[in-house]
Each structure stands twice: as C-alpha cells, then as structure tokens.
Design brief:
globular, 34% helix, alpha/beta, 11 strands, seven-stranded mixed β-sheet, binds S-adenosylmethionine
C-alpha cells in the first residue's frame, strides 16, 4: 500500500511545481570559482574523478568530427573534453540562463577564461529540455552522432511527463546508431543507504541526502517510480531537490523510444574497469583524482563514498530519427 502522507520535515526550499525554476536559479546563481578556490575545495578529488569519468565516456563513444548535443551542459565545463575528442560540432542546452552565459564566455574567451580556440563551432541555448520538444529550439542541427547528459537526467524524473519528454528528446535528436552517454545518481545505492540508516537522512562530510517524512516506510514501488524526491547537498557544489531514477523504468522508457541499453555501471565499478586501460590510467595521473597510494594528494574516503552514489550509462539509438 502507498505510505500515508504526513507533513514534510524539510522546508529549506519550497519544492513542487516551482522546483524546475528553483533548480534553474540555483545553478544560474552559482559563481565561478578561481583555480585557487577550486584546488582548495573539500571535494576537489571527487570533481577530478567525475571529470575523468566523463572524459572516459566521451573518448569511448565519440569519433573525430562527430556532432554532439549536450543536455544540461551547465557552464560548459566539458567543452575542453569535447575539443580533445576532436568533435565537429557542438550544441549545449541548459535551463539555467546564467550557466549558458558562462558557457558562452568559456567558449568565446573573456577576462577570467583565457581564449582557447576551440576546433569546433558551437551553439549554446537556454531551454528546459524536459518540458520543451527540442525540435522547437533546434534549427537544422539534428540529428547528432552523440547526445550527452552529464549529472542532469535525474532532474527529469519529477514526473512521468518530464521523464518521457527527456527520453523522447534524446531519441529524436540522435542518428540511428548514435550514442546517448550520461551520468546520474544510482538510485539502488541511495535506497540501500537510506534503508541502512535509522532516519530519513544519510551522508558524510561531502554530501547529505534527506528524504521527506512521506517516505518514512522507505518503500519505493516500481509501479509508482516518478516524483520520488529528496534534498541533495554536495559540499561546495549543490543544494537542490533531486529525484530517484528507477533504472528498470528508465531502461523500459528508453527502449520505447528506440534507445537500447549498451552499458550501465556504478562509478566504483566504472573506475575499477577503466583504470586497467593504460590510456585512461595515464589520464587519471594527469587529472590527479587518485594518487599513487603513497602521497596524501588523493581522494578521501568520504569523497570515494560520495562517488558510490553515482552511475554511468550508455544507450544506442536504434531505428530512424524522429525529429519532425
Ligand atoms: N553537465 C554539467 C556538468 O557535468 O558539469 C552540469 C551538471 S549540473 C549537476 C546539472 C545541470 O542540469 C545544471 O546546469 C542544470 O541547470 C541542468 N538542468 C536541470 N534541469 C534542466 C532542464 N529541465 N533542462 C535543461 N537543463 C537542466
């Protein structure tokens, strides 16, 4: 049976209808860090590990000259990764206006971003990718070889309509055979950790996850997989409502839209698997996320535990593109 609705305990944010706007404003208002501030961050090694994981995904599923659409591109933090993959064209879309402005500055160069001449033309668009059908905002750029959605897909899981529009958009913009690559929280791990605690809250010095009292029975029904909200706080990064993504439902919906699951791994397994590749091991050394075991300059136990709440996924587009 459904848990009985009891009053909410968390009221840091009024989240319901206005949650997308809250998310947009939250990301828009995040200031850019200087290199010094970034290096002093308590989660610097986690950030570096996330960058390594995104780089590995990008390098594994992108070919030279590919056209790429980046959904929830944020401040354009992955532009250099795409440049290194020598892509041919890039479209980045994000709901946060301030982030798109930052991404434009990163691409065009400004006082705080040294001018880097990117080898690909780019278009940066502000739009809600989980409400709007992307053919309304794209010109004649689609279809794309690769669609990337890094740490953003879970914001579409607020309700079934958004989740469907998100996956429909991905499928619609991809060429047959094109890849959909992404990262998002691992709902299995989050639910397991929640059930291991006495209350509705868990975390460590890097992150905190808080569920509403509504979930006091800690039951999550596969028949009701949308709108399972929690507050997520990542030290020095985000404090936002997020939604659990029940992966079997995600896969089933993706399948409906012609996206076939190719790969799915928790970040811990992802690291163990890809670090064996000498090219990626070298990249890890360059990025400096994991030390050599001898120095202190390595990921902390709490950061490594925070990495465990994420997963990476890859889907392949089967059949024709649906862009109208
Ligand atoms: N992909 C970037 C990265 O890996 O650094 C940014 C990730 S950030 C955690 C999540 C991003 O998703 C934010 O920039 C946020 O504005 C964006 N986002 C959330 N909801 C969105 C929506 N409905 N449409 C487009 N972007 C959205």
């Amino acid at each position: 049976s459904q848990p009985t609705k009891v009053p909410r305990t968390y009221d840091e944010v009024q989240v319901t209808e206005s949650s997308q706007q809250f998310i947009a404003e939250h990301y828009s208002n995040r200031s850019n860090q200087t290199i010094e501030e970034r290096e002093a961050s308590p989660i610097i090694h986690l950030k570096k590990l996330n960058n390594w994981i995104k780089s590995v995904l990008i390098q594994s599923y992108t070919k030279k000259n590919d056209s790429v659409i980046d959904i929830g591109c944020g401040k354009g933090g992955d532009l250099i990764k795409w440049d290194k993959a020598r892509i041919g064209y890039y479209v980045g879309i994000d709901i946060a206006k301030g982030s798109i402005e930052d991404a434009r500055m990163r691409y065009n160069g400004d006082a705080s971003h040294k001018r880097r001449v990117f080898s690909f033309p780019a278009r940066l668009i502000c739009a809600d990718c989980f409400t709007v059908h992307l053919d309304e905002v794209l010109q004649d750029e689609a279809p794309f070889d690769v669609c990337s959605c890094q740490f953003a897909m879970h914001y579409s899981w607020a309700n079934e309509e958004k989740a469907r529009i998100a996956l429909q958009n991905v499928a619609a913009v991809l060429k047959p055979g094109g890849y959909f690559i992404g990262t998002m929280p691992d709902a299995n791990v989050i639910v397991r950790k929640l059930r291991e605690t006495d209350g509705l809250e868990f975390g460590n010095s890097c992150y905190n996850i808080l569920f509403d009292d509504y979930y006091y029975e800690k039951k999550f029904l596969p028949s009701d997989p949308f709108g399972i909200e929690y507050m997520f706080h990542l030290e020095d990064a985000v404090s936002c409502p997020e939604w659990l993504v029940h992966f079997p439902t995600f896969q089933a919906l993706a399948d409906e839209y012609g996206l076939e699951l190719v790969y799915k791994k928790n970040f811990h397994e992802f690291v163990h698997e890809h670090i064996k590749n000498p090219v990626f091991a070298e990249l890890m050394k360059v990025l400096g996320a994991l030390g050599d075991g001898m120095s202190k300059d390595t990921i902390s136990a709490d950061e490594w535990d925070a990495a465990y709440i994420y997963m990476a996924f890859v889907f392949k587009k089967i059949g024709p593109s649906h862009i109208r």
